[in-house]
Design a protein that fits this description.
single chain; 254 residues; alpha+beta; five-stranded antiparallel β-sheet; 8 helices; globular
Length: 254
């Protein structure tokens, strides 16, 4: 079994929902699986949080919000680091893995509570379908793919990738990630619910704390940007030789 398929099944897919053959065809662009991959009972192991471009906001505001939310998930809600992907049409997505499947509606409600707490300026996305990376969007002809979190600023304004991302790099972005167990998810949900109740009682006086500067951000948390040297160092640490024509936007390849 391909390492990438192993990682996708380990993190995001309920057992028995998708065959290895169907998932391989998905990541090769031969077919595209439905956005919402759930059990027959409507259970999911994936919480996807999309960040689309915000009308009338400054360029890249959606990426800045993603970074703030990713850090809050870890610092304030005590959850494992999420994966980050670039969407096939526009924007980005955070990916959380659940150790125990939840009803899709409950996962969507978690996203809505998170939005109200940390990024209320965006439109609600409760139940919005999101493509499981990596895959080909047959309408746009572009690829969605997991990315190095430090490279996100390089993709602002880019509608996905023009070519399929290297499978080894995709697997490497996932192999160190953890699933959220039921106890940690329940505790995070309680914090969000308490925050929402407190905000309502004080008429919105509890605003999210400003994000830490990159220099003060602990290891493992997302940064808004990274130097080329940072990216190369990170990939080399995972035994990946970077080939930037596969991962950088068109016009910036080397």
């Amino acid at each position: 079994m391909l390492k990438l398929i192993q990682e996708l099944m380990r993190l995001y897919l309920p057992q028995g929902v998708v065959t290895e053959e169907a998932l391989q065809a998905h990541i090769l662009g031969q077919q595209t699986l439905p956005p919402d991959i759930t059990t027959v009972d409507g259970l999911t192991r994936t919480i996807a949080i999309p960040f689309h471009r915000i009308p009338k906001a400054e360029e890249g505001r959606h990426w800045a919000l993603l970074c703030e939310v990713a850090n809050a998930l870890q610092e304030e809600l005590d959850l494992p680091a999420p994966a980050v992907s670039i969407a096939s049409q526009e924007g980005f997505c955070l990916w959380l893995s659940l150790a125990t499947p939840l009803p899709s509606l409950e996962a969507g409600q978690f996203v809505e509570l998170l939005r109200q707490a940390y990024f209320p300026e965006t439109e609600p996305s409760l139940g919005a379908p999101v493509e499981l990376p990596p895959c080909l969007n047959r309408d746009s002809g572009r690829w969605t793919a997991f990315i190095n979190p430090g490279m996100g600023a390089s993709f602002i304004g880019e509608p996905g990738l023009e070519i399929a991302p290297p499978q080894a790099a995709q697997a490497a972005f996932l192999e160190g990630l953890e699933s959220i167990d039921a106890a940690r998810f329940g505790a995070a949900l309680e914090r969000l619910q308490a925050r929402g109740a407190g905000a309502a009682a004080s008429e919105g006086s509890l605003a999210p704390a400003p994000p830490a500067s990159p220099s003060a951000t602990p290891d493992g948390l997302l940064l808004k940007d990274a130097s080329l040297e940072d990216i190369v160092r990170h990939l080399h640490a995972m035994n990946i030789e970077p080939t930037f024509r596969h991962v950088l936007p068109s016009g910036r390849s080397s």
